[in-house]
Specification:
Oligomer: single chain
Number of strands: 4
Structural class: alpha+beta
Strand content: 25-35%
Number of domains: 1
Strand order of the largest sheet: 1-2
Distance between the termini: 47 Å
C-alpha cells in the first residue's frame, strides 16, 4: 500500500493494483471483441443499412405535424397544426442499400 497526502492534510492509502486494472480491462475487452464478433457486427450494420435503404426508396421522406398557439386570451385558445415534410433523395437510399450489401458481402469473408 502507498500513502498519499491530500491537499487538506488528510492522508489516504491506495493499492498497487490500481494501475493494473485498466490493463486487465483492456485485455478482457480484446478477448470479447474477436474477429468473429466483428464480422457479425459488420453484417448487422449491413442489414440495417439495407433496410434503411429500402425504406428510403419506398417512403421517399417522412412528415411530422407541429402545433403552434396562435391566440391565447383567457379561457380561449386557438392553435394551428402545420404538417412538415422532410424528403429523402433516392440517391441516399441507393447509397445506403449499396453500402449495406457491401458490408454483408464483406462480412462473410475471412482474410
Amino acid at each position: 500500500m502507498r500513502q498519499f497526502q491530500a491537499i487538506n492534510g488528510v492522508s489516504t492509502t491506495a493499492s498497487r493494483n490500481v494501475g493494473v486494472l485498466p490493463y486487465r480491462l483492456i485485455r478482457e475487452l480484446r478477448g470479447l471483441i474477436s474477429a468473429e464478433s466483428g464480422d457479425a457486427m459488420q453484417r448487422t450494420i449491413g442489414i440495417i443499412l439495407i433496410v434503411l435503404g429500402i425504406a428510403a426508396f419506398v417512403f421517399q421522406g417522412f412528415s411530422y405535424t407541429t402545433e403552434e398557439k396562435v391566440l391565447d386570451v383567457g379561457p380561449l385558445e386557438v392553435t394551428k397544426e402545420e404538417r412538415k415534410t422532410i424528403p429523402l433523395p433516392p440517391v441516399l437510399g441507393a447509397l445506403a442499400l449499396l453500402g449495406g450489401v457491401g458490408l454483408v458481402a464483406l462480412g462473410g469473408r475471412k482474410g
